[in-house]
Amino acid sequence: MAGLSTILMGSIPVVGNTLSPGLRTLKPRSLSTRGVVRCQAGPGGNNPLSGLKESVDEATKRPITREDIIRNQEENLSEKQSVFGAVPTSGSFYPRPELERRPETGSRSFGSLFAFDGAAPETINGRLAMLGFVWALCAEKLTGLTVMEQISNPATSGLVFFVGAVQIFTYASLIPMMNGESTDARSWGPFNARAERWNGRLAMIGFAALIIDEMIRQGPLIH
């Protein structure tokens, strides 16, 4: 609560913010038999969802500190040597040390986030693949069209929905990263960054396999 103003029995004690102009004009005798309590939620009292973000953060967010990242760099074998077989070096485009490529401690520029080892590519591609794989199968069942037909057929709106989904998921994924938060900072029960990465990787493989299968068979997977 941003402020609490209480008026009781004609006296006007004020705690927090000052009274609004509407309450200043009330005469003491009109308040002699009852109390009036005004609570402001959020800036200016205009945000009915004030406190929701704080509650979600408290339940799902685990801040990742610089010390946590340095400790993981020193103990995690996969961080000591990249998938390219080289030791990550500072200042290189990729592979970079974890301290430089994470949004919590590294650069939050567009180029850094979308670098080969940046935080954005796998996260966004995985989310789009999960959405696209489920969406494609459902649309095939309803329309009988393959994935490519759903996108390119003039009689459908698949291309419009595809472009819109890419924009929404890209922006929604970038906002936390540009604010210095990676997917590893969020977890809620089984929904954590590790599970999302594996589901996204499987969805990318599955979506690519679906398109290849339909190109070979010249027809939808689900009739």
TrEMBL record:
Signal peptide: none
Topological relation to the membrane, as annotated: Multi-pass membrane protein
InterPro entries recorded: Chloroa_b-bind
Primary location class: membrane
Name this polypeptide is given: Uncharacterized protein
GO cellular component: chloroplast; membrane
Coiled-coil boundaries: none
Family, per entry: Belongs to the ELIP/psbS family.
Keyword Plastid (UniProt): yes
Region annotated Disordered, chain positions: 39-58
Subcellular location as annotated: Membrane; Plastid, Chloroplast
Keyword terms of this UniProt record: Chloroplast, Membrane, Plastid, Transmembrane, Transmembrane helix
